[in-house]
Structures are given as structure tokens and as C-alpha cells.
Amino acid sequence: MIDLRNLSRRGFLNLGVAAGAGLMMPGGLIRPALAAAKPLAPVAEKDAVIAFGHTGPVTDEGWTWSHDQGMKAVQQAFPKLKTIFVESIPYSADASRTFRQFVSEGANMVFATSNYGDFLYDVAKRSPNVAFFECDGRHPMDNLGTYYVAHWYPTYVTGIAAGLMSKTGKLGYVASFPVPSVYSGTNAFLMGARSVNPNATLQAIAINSWFDPQAATQAGTALLDNGCDLLFGIMDEAGYLQVAEKRGAKAVMWNTDIRRYGPKGYISSIVVDFKKFYVEQVRQRLAGTWVPSTPILAMGAGVDRDAWGETVPEEVRKQADAARDKILGGWSPFTGEIKDSKGAVRVAAGKTMTEEELYNWNWSIEGVKGL
């Protein structure tokens, strides 16, 4: 039986950040090489095959769509190489077969845009001359790197807007699973809200899926029925934004700008952009300089808040963006004292959480319910 607490952002087997993992300071990106890794041989552009394995459909207008845009940027930057992709890969033995198929088709580099754990690792071990990169992975190897985004910083920023705009102080969250990306999202959002409204609370409902518009709509409806007047979540579609729009509530979204589904309800979105990252990694692979690294893309360099929605007051924008500017200048809002949902002190007064701790956050702060 798999413990859902050990699910990662998009898959299974949260094994903890391994030795050699890179740390990201706010506003910057560090890409360390693993000590034992050696660069793979260069590949001529005309002979190169770059593969992408996706957890959802490329038409989701969310997570997978964002990675697909990264693939398109690679195609534009290197028009002579070949790209292949498979979407909606299940977390099962079918995933291993897909990754093996990439290798058999001559892939020189494989991006798994979700954490596929052992379904990917076994293939990587058997293919030492292929470069692998796993999004939200936690087990780097000599030919496999990991990457992710520091979404907790823009989430804190949008949380400030939420705290200022919520009339009840009751925030709702449409969750996928109880995983680190959800904990860091709910916690950062509520911490931002509580910085301007100390009495704010957050109720979460997990729907056990990353892409289920019907379930997300039902969860959003239930949260509003329970007294929440502002929604957040980590879904790959606009279900709960549409609910908020119809009910006169507000919502913060994830992945992309989807305000057209609820322009008056839309506050902002945590937007991700992998284009520059993918182009640079492929460039290194072709040049024979690629070695596995473990970057966390910083706010402003792979993840950020979207442009504010039309109904966000100017004073709210200014107050939230003042925090954003401080973060870009090196300040971290994740400094203790921070207590968990049971009242125990988890981060001592004056101590700032490390990027590793934020990446692997697996407990709820005071005021979060439902996880």
C-alpha cells in the first residue's frame, strides 16, 4: 500500500532530497553537477532525439501544456533535431514501457515532466548514455537530474492579496493529494494571508487527481457552501475558478493564465515557464557538457505570479508586490516561529526554512484544515 504522504508533485516515491541536491536562493538559480557524474558525449543536432513524457494531456491549459510549450521552444531553437512525446502516462508499468520505448527510438535526452520514481529509475540505470531529467524528482543519478519550481514564493505573494480581499477570512483549497507541493502551497498561501489578516484560516479538500474538472468543481462548490469566499488550488484546469465566478467569489489559480474562464473572480495564477530551462539543457546535451543537476527554478526565472486580475484593487496589488520585491531581494517569509496544525513548534523563532525543507514540506501549519 502506498502512503499518499510520500507522493510527490506529480507522482510517487518521495525519497527525500539526495546528497548533492542544489539549493535555490530567492531570485537566483543554482545548477550544481553531481560530484560523480561525467558529461555525456556530444550529439550532432541533426542526429539528436529529445523525448518528453507527460502526466496529463498537452491540451489541459495547465501543467502539461506548460511543458509542451517548453518542447516547442526546443523545436524552435534546434530545428534539425527530432522531438517525440507521450501524454497522459499512467503511474504503472506502462510508464516504464514508455520510457524504454523512448530509448529504443534513439532518444539522447528524456524529460519526465512528473515524478515517475522507480518506473523511470530502472530505465535510466539501464541506459547510461541517455540523459534523463525528472520534474519534482528526488533521486538523482549519474545520468538523471531533477528539477522543479519554487512556487511557494509567488504563492505567498498571492496569499497576501487573498488575505486583503477575503471578506470572511475563510479560504478554500482544492487539493490533489497530501503531497509536498500541496503542503507548501497551502502553508505559503495561508502565511501570506495571515501576514495581513492574522485570523485567516484555510480549508482543503483533496480530490485524488491532478486533472478532474468535475471533481474540482464539486470541491470548489463545497468549500463555498462551507463559508469560504476565496479559493486556491493546484489543479490543471479552471473548474473551481468557474465556480467562483458564478458565485461572486474570488480565486487564485495554478500553471497558466486562465482568467477568461472567470475574469471577475480571477485574482492571479502561479504560472510556470520551462522554455528557457529546456532550451539550455538541450543545448548542453548537444554540446557534450550536460551533467545531471538538481535546480529549483526561482521566482522570476521559471515561476511567478500572473498579472493581477481586473477586480484586484490597486492598494492590494501594491501591498502584495512589495513582498514580492523583498523576496526577489533575498528575503524569505518562511522564518519562525512556525507551528503545525497541532500547535507544535516546527520552526523555531528566528530560523528560516531552507529550500530543501520547503521543497519537502509534509506538514500543515496552524489554521490549515483538511490535510
UniProtKB/TrEMBL annotation:
The keyword Cell membrane does not apply. Keywords: Signal. Residues 50-293 form the ABC transporter substrate-binding protein PnrA-like domain. InterPro entries: ABC-Purine-Binding, PnrA-like, TAT_signal. Pfam families: Bmp. GO terms for cellular component: plasma membrane. It comes from the Bacteria. This is BMP family ABC transporter substrate-binding protein. It comes from Telmatospirillum siberiense.
